[in-house]
Design a protein that fits this description.
Blueprint: E1 2-5, E2 11-14, H1 17-34, H2 42-52, H3 80-87, E3 95-96, E4 100-107, E5 116-123, E6 128-135, E7 138-139, E8 146-147, E9 150-157, E10 164-167, E11 174-180, E12 185-196, E13 200-210, H4 216-221
Helix pairs in contact: 1-3, 2-3
Length: about 220
């Protein structure tokens, strides 16, 4: 639900994409204004917004696929401050110590079908972590169809590959995972190419981490 001002500055409350979409579009515009490189990396802009949308009213706290759950919040309510912090940090190395995003050009051989590319981040135990990826689907020129010509899967491994969190949907051009880091150390993001019928695409990766005590009520609510 979104509270807005109507005629005579009277507040009213509505829900649905008609209210949510303008807010997300406005945030996207602000992020591009703050970091203009995102103008040519829209596939990174999407996971930045999704990964930083940390507030959920209705559990579960991240989108789930093919499980019969009505994900009323989608990826969650946007957090403009967190999205901005992430958007400002484009990482060009394979490893990061602060929330950031990567933009990666993928081809037939990099990675090949069945292969994967990896990125790494460091986080302290107890941190609430969200990782999201997105890539281009193939919309027709008249927008009457939209095909997924590349299918990517997301897995995140804990230090020494202990622990595994994954998102493996087959009908979306994004994946997202969330978890509370069980130990401090170096985590590995694995993006695996499950299938592809095109020669190239572009991939965006983003991750965020929050202190556990800030969002403890949100985490604990899912276990009530």
């Amino acid at each position: 639900e979104v509270t807005a001002l109507g005629m005579g500055n009277e507040p009213f409350i509505l829900d649905g994409t008609s209210m949510a979409a303008p807010q997300v579009a406005g945030l996207a515009a602000l992020l591009v204004d703050c970091n203009p490189i995102l103008w040519i990396w829209p596939e990174a802009l999407k996971p930045i917004i999704m990964a930083s949308a940390v507030h959920s009213i209705e559990p579960p706290s991240v989108m789930q696929f093919d499980d019969g759950v009505d994900d009323k919040d989608g990826a969650g309510a946007i957090d403009a401050a967190m999205a901005l912090t992430t958007a400002e940090n484009r990482e060009t190395a394979d490893e990061s110590y602060i929330p950031c995003w990567w933009g990666v050009s993928i081809t037939t051989t990099n990675p090949p079908v069945g292969g994967a590319l990896n990125r790494y981040f460091h986080v302290a135990a107890g941190g609430r972590v969200r990782v999201a990826i997105s890539w281009f689907s193939n919309a027709s020129s008249d927008y009457s169809s939209d095909s997924l010509d590349t299918d990517l899967d997301l897995r995140v491994f804990g230090p020494d590959d202990q622990g595994l969190w994954r998102s493996l949907s087959i009908s979306n051009n994004y994946e997202i995972v969330e978890f509370v880091a069980p130990t401090s150390g170096r985590y590995r993001i694995e993006v695996k190419k499950y299938s592809a019928s095109e020669n190239e695409n572009s991939l965006g990766i983003a991750w965020v981490s929050l202190r556990w005590d800030i969002y403890l009520p949100l985490i604990m609510r899912e276990y009530e």
